[in-house]
Amino acid sequence: MSSARTARPVTSPDGTPPGASLYPHLLAPLDLGHVSLRNRVLMGSMHTGLEERGDWDRVAAYYAERAAGGAGLIITGGMAPNAEGGVFPGAAGLYTEDDIANHRKVTQAVHDAGGRIAMQILHAGRYAYGKDCVSSSAIKSPISPFVPRELDEDGIEKQIADFATCAQRAREAGYDGVEVMGSEGYFINQFLALHVNRREDRWGGSYENRMRLPVEVMKRVRAAVGDDFIIVYRISLLDLVPNGQSWDEVLRLARAMEEAGASILNTGIGWHEARIPTIATSVPRAAFSWVTKKLMGQVGIPLITSNRINTPDVAESLLAEGCADMVSMARPFLADAEFVKKAAEGRAEEITPCIGCNQACLDHTFMGKISSCLVNPRACHETELNYTPAAQAKTVAVVGAGPAGLMAALVAAERGHKVTLYERDGQIGGQLNMARVIPGKEEFHGLVEWFETMVARAGIDLHLNTEATAEALEGFDEVIIATGVLPRDPQIPGQDGANVVNYVDVLKGGAMVGSRVAVLGAGGIGFDVSEYLTHQGESPTLHLDHWLREWGVTDPEAAPGGLAKPEPPKPARAITLLQRKAERPGKRLGKTTGWIHRASLTARDVRMMGGVSYEAITPDGIMLSTDQGPQMLAVDTVVLCTGQEPMRALADALQEAGRPVHVIGGADVAAELDAKRAIDQGARLAASL
After folding, report:
1. 472 and 620 share a domain?
2. Which positions ≥6 away from 34 have C-beta within 8 Å?
3. pLDDT band for position 367 (cuts 50, 70, 90)
4. What torsion, rounded to 10 degrees, do the Cα atoms 351, 352, 355, 361 define?
């Protein structure tokens, strides 16, 4: 969100930006010899799906907006150096002369906006979702159905040559540099680790042999582009898979890459197949910066730290503490293209926060959709969703200050409409206030706080503790109903008993819950409630050492790849999670985060059952019908997470009276608690008023 209506002072009395004193390390230039980057902020690589659509003007607009927003250096999404290296058939790349003109549109737009951009060269290796995939050894990955072809000498030479040619073409296309992707379990990483590399020739066996490929790639790339070109090497500091690299090997590789011509080393954490979360919202902020710090001083080129860095204060502290020379932030630039600009102008509290949810970015990527952002629907839609000044200012009433209503109110106000916002609760946020009490979802606190800041600065007339009525809405030009949802009545015999509560009562802290619990409904809410009830004490997301122990992450000097035995805490309660659907509980959770939720509950001994019917609730528990016959589940408390229904009474009354209204969010469709859809719907409606 940006608007002249909410802008704050951008200079101090002496003429310097306020952020210069707040973030002296973050905003300091980084001298690379032939070029100086304007600050220490890297916009990390993200695949958006835009390039595959062939609309390169749209790609250019996306990157240019982030260059104008102040990023010191932008890294593109991964571009394949050849057809077999693409993450899927037809994936974007730079391996023909015809591609250069398209990429030149992007580089020109970024340079016109005052930024610098490097293209990531990504060879997927055995992660490529296609039958022509290649790797160091013919070992299938657990995240792809295809067995890769083991490369022979000629095949390896072709891959190395294609990296160099790709880099040369990137320079011709106007890029300021390239990033060679050597981590996350992709092609180069597959040669480095014994986890995949089982060769016995000069490309396998000893580490000297296994590191031959990345070193040769770096030498050839440097020779192809010359000395006055940035080459970032993405180095895997923690593989987080069995038979990963030791710290001595990582250190040896880092020094070899410097000698071979790398300008910068960028931290990579974990392979995509690793069973340890690395970027989800439940991962502590800057959870892996200590690994980058281990490498500081061991090489003479700058180091970049990454993963779960989402505020300028966190980034500044990492640089001040000597953890790195530069910080990489990827998803925060989806959330707010003006991240650096706002920090430099002393407006950090106006930065739309990345909550690490993955719902509109990575989940979209892995489903073949164009990426966006839950908190910023304009991300990757810059050419078709804009909040331009309204031709005619209107009076707009918004009923409900949940995510849909809040976004609608903010966009409408930004466009010049006079907005009145009604909320029957004593605080804004709606369902977000329940989400933020879940251990691992602490980032939702920041999102609610951001909404509070922006509502105040937008001049919105906010009425809390106010039940809007049809009479109160008389006279408004536009009425938007965003009243949210109600828990669905599952109509189970005995549900009125003293031992039965619903998820709202639990998450708002008003329900007594026993030590043995049945959670009915295994959607997102059921999983969240189970997570909430199994925890005791503070969330491990707020205590890095606890989180590392729980997931089994250790110093790579102690164990190759940084893997240790997980030590999950003892659960606070015995939970049984039930669902009617005859499928694996949690199957419909987020594409990239569902496995984390399932693994977390499994580690806390949560029993999960699908394909059951709820026959009756008694003081002793709940009677179930299963494929093995009737079963009495003895529990102290039954928690109902059995769906939601739209809260539409006001909307229906207005429509019956013939008054035009707009209905958005949960009041429109009550599927789960879909903040992504609610915020997008609110933004798009307000943009059209």
Report:
1. no
2. 227, 228, 229
3. confident
4. -120
Interval 382-409: pLDDT, tens: 999 999 999 999 999 999 999 999 999 9
| Catalytic entry in 23, 63, 186, 422 | 186
Torsion angle of the four alpha carbons 592, 596, 602, 608, in this order, in degrees rounded to the nearest 10: -40
pTM above 0.90, yes or no: yes
Q: How confident is the model at residue 11 (pLDDT cuts 50, 70, 90)?
A: low
The reported pLDDT for the residue numbered 673 is 64
Q: In sequence order, which ranges of 137-186 are alpha helices (DSSP H)? A: 153-172
Matching residue, tokens 């910023």? 376
Other C-beta atoms within 10 Å of 2: how many?
17
Give domain status of residue 323, yes or no.
Answer: yes
- Structural domain boundaries enclosing 505: 489-536+572-642
pLDDT in tens, 80-90: 999 999 999 99
Same domain, residue pair 662 and 530: no
| Token pair listed for 447 | 């999102």
Q: What angle do CA 240, 242, 248 make, to 5 degrees?
A: 70
CA distance 202 to 219: 18
Distances (CA, A) of 586 to 160, 296, 599: 42, 41, 10
Beta bridge pairs of residue 230: 177
CB-CB neighbours of 654 under 10 Å:
18
Q: Answer yes or no: is 135 within a domain.
A: yes
26 Cβ partners below 8 Å, 6+ apart? 39, 40, 41, 312, 315, 316, 319, 327, 343
- Alpha carbon dihedral 466, 472, 476, 478, in 10-degree steps, equals 60
List the CATH number of the domain containing 151: 3.20.20.70
Determine contact, residues 386/407, Cβ cutoff 8 Å: no
Q: What is the CATH number of the domain that holds 456?
A: 3.40.50.720
Tokens representing 687?
């943009």
The CA distance from 40 to 340, in Å, is: 10
What is the CA angle 666-670-676, rounded to 5? 60
Give the pLDDT score at 510: 82
Active-site annotation holds for 186 = yes
- Tell me the two tokens of residue 81: 């150096």
Percent of the chain with pLDDT over 90: 93
Same domain, 472 and 348: no
Number of C-beta neighbours around residue 426 at 10 A: 7
pLDDT at 15: 64
Q: How many domains does the chain have?
A: 3
**Share above pLDDT 70 across residues of the chain, in percent, rounded to a whole number:** 97
Domain shared by 189 and 335, yes or no: yes
What's the CATH code of the domain at 631?
3.50.50.60
